[in-house]
Write a structure and sequence with these properties.
The complex is a heterotrimer.
Chain A (H helix, E strand, L loop, with lengths): L1 H19 L5 H23 L9 E8 L4 E7 L1 H24 L4 H20 L3 H10 L1 H11 L4 H34 L6 H4 L6 H18 L8 H8 L2 H26 L1 H27 L4 H22 L2 H32 L10 H4 L1 H14 L6 H16 L1 H26 L14 H19 L2 H17 L11 H6 L6
Antiparallel strand pairs in A: 1-2
Chain B lengths: L2 H6 L1 H19 L3 H17 L2 H4 L4 E3 L3 E3 L1 H28 L4 H19 L3 H19 L6 H32 L14 H17 L8 H7 L2 H24 L7 H22 L4 H20 L4 H29 L15 H4 L1 H15 L5 H15 L3 H26 L13 H19 L2 H11 L4
Antiparallel strand pairs in B: 1-2
Chain C lengths: L4 H21 L3 H26 L5 H31 L13
Helix pairs in contact in C: 1-2, 2-3
The chains are: A mainly alpha, B mainly alpha, C mainly alpha.
Chain lengths: 507, 470, 103
């Protein structure tokens, strides 16, 4: 039942805050913070107490629409628990950031924010395809409203673009789910949307490939892989900071999670056959994002392209599908989520102080705001993958894993990571060094702000220096996932394209 | 006719009797309130009497009508929708200071016609049902006698319905010439070219009635010209009856790969795309809903060609229910915003509604999300079941058309949604919500959410009903 | 002399087409309504022919014709009332001039 509580708390707090918020905006703020913190606390509780049953740490199955084979099946393993914890953490950050940023219709704002978070938690916990789809879609509408009502200029276009991209790909996924279920039904006579039951279904290869592509489309859009990335920069820039934090920090991680949990285990052969294409896309995404990030002057837009580039690395790791790369992906998702969230908050702080977050208007921040600058430097170094930071561990493991599969692809990806150092240092140089500009207020971080940033930086450092607890937590899940595809995703018979790109290796 | 026959017809008889009762009441004293109360009570009674035919279902009452599970479910929907329109119309007519009493007579006649259509098992019943609906609707569309748009819409609908009945009738005559029977079953066995020609004409007539592309040109004008409650009636009650008839009719002729099947697929795909594309540019909500209803019935055609009867029937009923709830809700909000100055059918009238009248905007948001098929609303469950039925029958072309065109549809629903949440320009005085309309909206909202969040009991009910299939 | 059934069907089809053409081309509302009547009567002719040539022992066709005549009368009554109102409001029954709405 604790899992239902995890989803229920944000929704209830949101509703309650919305109702009470008409009189006093302190209510929704306080309730929202309480809700996100209790998600974090519950997540930690699940992680620290012994598991209930194998193979899941916690599991709950309730009937929902038995006629359609749809059940309320929630379960949590190491992988989803980590992402839930990330949701709790960054959700709290978003709530705190919005505390002063949002001043009108506060109750409704927090209701939407919490609804989106509840949807996300649902996505990480759901083991029923339709439940998963519902949660997947559930987070869209609140984010859409958040962007259109509280966003900055061009918010309507950005919001519509965001929703159309995700909805079209989502419907393709729904179609693939239905088709999979009908294939399963024809074979076994059991009509169910349950993930565990569907795992072994083997549709004919051509069909399986189509279905896999349906799933891949939905997750690739969320992960903003080139060529379906174009919603992301607009949405990040237009959204209020709290929403950018949620979008970039957690929501796009749901795309990677979907690939790991659903797309690949359900269709291992198709994933194997598709892997060369996916890895090619990953490389294109890495390089494309990096090159565009080089040319950006607006901090949020720069972060968006940097994010695109980094998610390319995650995609590479997912499709390399071996021990190293998968562990790397998880670390990368966590570290990048926290780092990006921190940088979005930082961009907001810069904007508050200098009335602009554009590099052309900034300069010499280091001399006027040392504390803010120190945080900025740490976060950016983390982003570019300095050893000792979480991102480094993640990217290193991914590249290590991918090298065994295709050295050429890995080399190209590594080039992208070098570029990431260039574009990050460029921003740091232009914004923080050199002579200070006129008219910049020199208000450094307040004590509260410093504390918030210190927590984020601390976690990134911890991930970089002592990743073992995280790796230990996630190992069983990764083993399970790889068990599900055992004997299929190995390189004994490399697909022709793989042979072309690299010379194969052990996965 | 014996005892069981009367029981089987109870909902129809009660509705018809209510119409007579309202007429008699008008003869005694003209009173809007009395007419409304009699109508509402009659409709509620008719809804309650739906339990009576169940014991005998499926039962053919005379060769004309057949009361089976599907029919009863559609009749239930028709009656509920009529009740909803009556509740909305009560406040609307009072605000416009229109004489309301005859309105309810015509309303009830439309309902009776739609019920007959849904129950028809015989071409004579089909024709009578269609004509009862149409003739009552002429009166309703032209009800605001001084209103130019209303009259224009009325004459357009008159001509359209005339053409429809001519096509249908000519088709029936050809079918009769070939088979010598007016029963729907006759369609299954013909021996000359007259039968396919007749079926073709019949299909064209029904396509006119349900406004499938390319027979859709009349529908936006009629919606725009008719007053909002009447537009709601056309969109729900009239279409429900006609679709049920089409559904019952086509099941007897449909074979996969037949020319009828191909024609239906063509109609469906065209309706989905053209309906949604034409809606994109609309700034008038009534016209927009008209085009979106074209698209929705295009989606619904998928179930007509599906293979599994039970699944298709459930899909049709769930979709019709969701569509009825949602469309009625959207029109309901429009009706609440309309007053003597005109119907609130322009997009601008909804600007900033969320901050002016949050409750109405909340209902509208739910309805729009449901029309777009977003999860946790009835629209999603409906689309889900519909897609299941299509995937089961492997109708890939219409299904892909459905998915892609429904994303186009999402775009214009979102545009309205955006308008609701834009900053308002002025702050017009907000009128209080009339009790009847408020209740109806609350019920519709709850229905949409309940069906979206926990549809299991509803599906159980449908499964139970469909054990009484013909 | 016996007229072949094909002849009668041809005449009824012709009537139907004439009605449809009148409906499309005539601008006068009353002429359009007359077009509809022609189409309905084409169907009636078909029914009668079907009875006389194919199914002389069955009564459905005759009943159908009676129903159609009644319904057509009802339709004409309501239709003419609407046309009358149109004339009052617009001062014309020319459908080309009664075009406030697009499409």
């Amino acid at each position: 039942m604790i899992l239902v509580t995890l989803i229920g708390i944000p929704i209830l707090a949101g509703l309650l805050g919305w109702m009470l918020g008409r009189r006093n905006p302190a209510w929704p703020r306080g309730l929202a913070l309480a809700a996100t913190l209790s998600v974090l606390a519950l997540g930690l509780y699940i992680g620290l107490t012994p598991p209930e049953n194998t193979p899941w740490l916690r599991q709950v199955r309730l009937p929902w629409i038995p006629q359609l084979g749809v059940g309320m099946h929630l379960a949590v393993d190491g992988l989803s628990l980590l992402l839930v914890l990330l949701t709790g953490l960054l959700g709290s950050v978003a709530v705190i950031v919005a505390w002063r940023e949002i001043t009108d219709r506060v109750g409704f704002f927090y209701f939407n924010l919490l609804a989106a978070l509840a949807g996300l938690i649902g996505v990480f916990l759901a083991l029923d395809l339709i439940l998963f789809f519902c949660c997947w879609e559930l987070m869209l509408v609140p984010v859409f409203l958040l962007i259109t009502i509280w966003g900055q200029r061009q918010r309507h276009e950005a919001a519509i673009k965001f929703l159309l991209f995700t909805q079209l790909s989502g419907l393709l996924m729904l179609l693939a789910m239905l088709a999979l279920v009908f294939v399963h039904w024809r074979v076994t006579g059991q009509f169910t949307f349950n993930y565990v039951a569907l795992l072994g279904t083997m549709p004919p290869p051509a069909v399986a490939m189509l279905l896999f592509l349906g799933f891949f489309a939905a997750f690739a859009v969320k992960l903003h892989i080139v060529p379906v990335h174009s919603w992301a920069p607009d949405a990040y820039v237009a959204a209020p900071t709290a929403v950018s934090v949620v979008l970039a920090g957690i929501m796009l991680k749901a795309g990677a999670y979907g690939l790991l949990r659903f797309a690949i285990p359900l269709f291992p052969q198709s994933a194997e056959a598709f892997a060369p294409v996916a890895m090619g896309l990953a490389v294109i995404t890495i390089l494309y994002g990096a090159v565009l990030a080089l040319g950006q002057t607006e901090l949020k837009r720069w972060l968006a392209y940097a994010g695109i580039s980094h998610m390319g690395v995650a995609l590479l790791g997912v499709f390399a599908w071996n021990q190293w790369s998968l562990h790397g992906v998880v670390i990368l998702l966590l570290a990048h989520g926290i780092g990006t969230a921190g940088l979005f908050v930082l961009a907001r702080m810069v904007r508050e102080r200098c009335n602009s977050a554009d590099l052309r208007d900034l300069g010499g921040l280091w001399s006027t705001m040392p504390r803010l600058s120190a945080v900025a430097m740490l976060l950016m170094l983390a982003l570019l993958g300095l050893p000792g930071m979480g991102t480094f561990i993640g990217e290193f493991l991914v590249l290590l894993g991918a090298f065994g599969v295709s050295p050429l692809v890995t080399a190209l990806a590594a080039l992208g990571i070098i570029l990431s150092a260039v574009y990050t240092l460029r921003v740091l140089y232009r914004g923080w060094f050199g002579p200070p500009r006129d008219g910049q207020a020199s208000v450094d971080l307040s004590r509260g702000e410093t504390a918030l940033m210190a927590v984020l930086v601390g976690i990134i450092l911890w991930l970089g220096l002592f990743p073992q607890p995280v790796l230990r937590a996630v190992s069983p899940s990764i083993d399970d996932l790889r068990m599900a595809t055992r004997g299929l995703m190995v390189m004994e018979h490399p697909a022709p394209l793989v042979r072309l790109i690299g010379w194969g290796g052990e996965r | 006719m014996n005892h069981a026959d009367y029981l089987s017809l109870a909902p129809l008889l009660v509705t018809a009797a209510t119409a007579v009762a309202v007429l008699l009441a008008i003869a005694v004293r003209r009173s809007h309130a009395a007419a409304f109360i009699i109508t509402a009570c009659g409709l509620i009674l008719a809804l309650l009497s739906l339990g009576l035919p169940l014991r005998h279902a499926p039962r053919g009452v005379t060769p004309l009508l057949l009361m089976d599970g599907f029919t009863l479910a559609v009749i239930g929907l028709v009656l509920a929708a009529t009740l909803g329109v009556a509740l909305f119309a009560h406040g609307y007519l009072a605000r416009l200071r229109l004489a309301g009493d005859e309105f309810y007579v015509l309303l009830l006649l439309v309902a009776v016609g739609a019920c007959v259509l849904a129950a028809a098992d015989h071409f004579a019943a089909l024709f009578l049902g269609m004509e009862t609906t149409s003739i009552a609707l002429y009166g309703l569309i032209g009800y605001r006698r001084g209103h130019r748009l209303g009259l224009e819409a009325a004459i357009k609908y008159l001509v359209l319905a005339g053409v429809t009945s001519a096509f249908v009738l000519f088709g029936i005559a050809l079918i009769y010439a070939d088979t010598g029977s007016l029963l729907f079953m006759a369609l299954a066995n013909g021996n000359s070219l007259l039968l396919p020609a007749g079926i073709g004409l019949l299909l064209v007539g029904l396509a006119f009635k349900l406004a499938f592309v390319p027979f859709h040109l009349w529908i936006p004008d009629v919606y725009e010209g008719a007053s909002a409650p009447v537009a709601a009636l056309i969109a729900t009650v009239a279409k429900l009856g006609a679709f049920a008839a089409l559904f019952n009719l086509l099941w007897s002729v449909m074979q996969p790969g037949s020319s009828v099947c191909i024609a239906v697929i063509l109609l469906a795909v065209l309706s989905m795309f053209v309906g949604n594309l034409l809606a994109l540019q609309q700034k008038n909500i009534k016209r927009l809903l008209a085009y979106s209803s074209i698209a929705h019935f295009g989606y619904l055609l998928v179930v007509v060609i599906a293979e599994d009867v039970l699944l298709a029937t459930i899909a049709a009923l769930v979709y019709l229910t969701a569509y009825t709830l949602t469309t009625l809700g959207a029109f309901g909000v429009m009706i609440q915003l309309s007053n003597a100055d005109g119907d609130a059918d322009h997009l601008e009238a909804y600007r900033g509604l969320a901050w002016r009248r949050p409750w109405l905007a909340g209902v509208m948001t739910a309805m729009l999300l449901s029309l777009a098929g977003i999860p946790l609303t009835a629209g999603f469950i409906a689309k889900f079941v519909l897609l299941s039925s299509g995937v089961d029958a492997q109708l890939w072309l219409p299904i892909f058309a459905l998915v892609i065109s429904s994303v186009i549809g999402l775009y214009y629903y979102l545009r309205i949604l955006l308008t609701l949440y834009r900053a308002p320009e002025a702050q017009p005085a907000s009128a209080p919500l009339p009790f009847t309309g408020g209740v109806a909206l609350a019920v519709l909202l709850l229905g949409v959410l309940w069906l979206g969040i926990y549809p299991a009991p509803f599906l159980t009910l449908l499964e139970h009903l469909l054990t009484y299939l013909r | 002399m016996v007229i072949p059934i094909t002849g009668i069907l041809a005449v009824s089809a012709l009537l139907f087409v004439v009605g449809a053409v009148a409906l499309i081309t005539r601008r006068n509302a009353i002429a359009a309504l007359m077009g509809v009547e022609l189409m309905l009567n084409a169907a009636n002719l078909n029914f009668v022919a079907a009875w006389r040539y194919f199914w002389p022992e069955r009564m459905e066709a005759q009943v159908a014709v009676l129903i159609v005549i009644t319904v057509a009368a009802a339709e004409a009554a309501v239709g003419l009332a609407i046309v009358l109102n149109l004339y009052r409001r617009f001062g014309t029954v020319d459908l080309e001039q009664i075009r406030l709405m697009r499409g």
